[in-house]
Every structure is written in C-alpha cells, then in structure tokens.
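User: For my dataset I need records formatted as: sequence, then structure tokens, nothing else. Please produce one.
Assistant:
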Amino acid sequence: MSYPYGQPEYPGQGQPVPGYEQPGYPQPAYQQPGYAQPGYPQPGYPQPGSGYPQPNYPGGYPTQPPSGATAITAAVLSIIFAVLAGFGGLAMIIFAASFRSSYSSDDYSSSLDDATTVIIGLGVFVLVMGILWFVGALLLLARKTAGRVMLIVLTSIGLIGSVVGMVKNPTGPDVIGLGVGLLILVLAAVPPTGRWIAAGKNPPPAQQGYMPYPYA
C-alpha cells in the first residue's frame, strides 16, 4: 500500500516521551588524527633512570702520556758527564800522588806540596761530582724529583767551574763542556720533564669498556 505523502506518522513518533530523555552515547576514547594523543602511556623501552644501570662509555680519546724525551736526554748526557768526571777525578788524584812520591823529602818543597794537595783535593771533588751526577741521572730515569733537582744543582756548579776555567785559560774542551752543561740544565729544568716525572707518580686510570644496554 503506498502513501502519497511518505510514511505515515504515528502519534508521538519523533517526539520525546515526557519524563524520558534520549540516552546519550559516549564519545570514543580515541581522537581524530591531528589532535592531541590519548593520555595512556606509550609502550616502549624503559626510560633512563628507571633503575637500570646506564652504559659506561669512555670519555673521549685517552690523553697521551708525556714522552719524556727531554728527561731521558738529560739523564743520558749526565751519565756521560759522570763517567768523564769520574775518570778525570781519579786521574788527578793518581797524578798528584805519584808526583809527590817521585820526589825525595830534600827536593820536595812546600810549594810543590801545596800544589799536589790542591790537585788531589780537586780530583776528589770532581770524583764526588761524577758519582752524584751518575746517581742523579739514575733517579731521573726512575722518574724521581730528587734526580731532577740533583742534575740542576750539579750542572749549575759545573757550569760555574767551566766559566772560571775559561776566563783563566779558555780551551776547546771547556767550550764543549760548557755547551753540553747548558743543554743538560735546560733539558732538566723545562716543564715537559716535570710532567713526565708527575705522570710516573700518578698513572692514568684504565679505560672502561662498553657495557651492554639492558633490554626489558
């Protein structure tokens, strides 16, 4: 059966019943794309600081230790000086003693006695200087501050003696000794030598390797 004006309307159809409201439907919890994300947490890996240890990575490239070239060079030159001083001191002592014994008491004057005494004294002084030079060089090679101080002091004393000798009678060996002595003094006193000694007292800590990152 057809109706000329569409479907028939029954009484009350399309109008709310008194005392009864249309039920409201809740909006979906999700939101349309482009809006703020929902409030529930996103799944994933645990965030840093959630009780898991963090991986330890090395802090950049390790610092290169001092080479010690200045200290080693100063020590080697000092050992050479020590050997030469030791032989020179012994030679002076032996020469003065043999010269004194070669003369009889009648021919031996007081002036010769004084001269040989001075030579023997200088020989002992040079010999002791050579021994101390050798000890200071060994201490410096062992990265001891005392060795560095000994070489600086002994070389300064040797330079003063070389300058005095050159003023009275300058010779080629005196000039060479003065130049090498200045080189030892500079190499022992420069800051790289001190840093090399300090590095031996406080070695750098060992680098830590990579630790695997914990997975949940």
